[in-house]
Amino acid sequence: MPDSVFDLGGDTLMVADTVFRARSVKSRGNQLLWLQIGAGHGVSGAAEWTVLASLIVPIKGDERIFFGCRVNKRRVRRLVALGLWEDGPYFTEMHRAWKVNIASRSFDEIPAAGVDCVNSDHGE
Fold this sequence. Notes:
Order of helices and strands: EEEEEEEEEEEE
Shape: globular
Number of strands: 12
Helix content: under 10%
Structural class: mainly beta
Strand order of the largest sheet: 1-2-3-4
Radius of gyration: 15 Å
């Protein structure tokens, strides 16, 4: 990853025998969502990734990007949301949400109503 890009985390997605990643990254003051595909290993043996889709996400105030989300309390694979951090088992104040669409190589916006995301650090 270039020095000007900071990986803020994300999710790994398996489709058949292909590995994809949905990542939150920061670059030149912008926060973005990237959809990446595994592109083998480099000379050093480290995994290499190719960016298939990129979406600039305007962040306001204390908003954050979350992975591991649900719609109406049902887990939905490949869902990313933007909302506020809360001290509870789920983040419930979501402002925007996107479904990762591997077939079209895009992030498809969906209504944020009913979306929440697991707080994996809650209770530690």
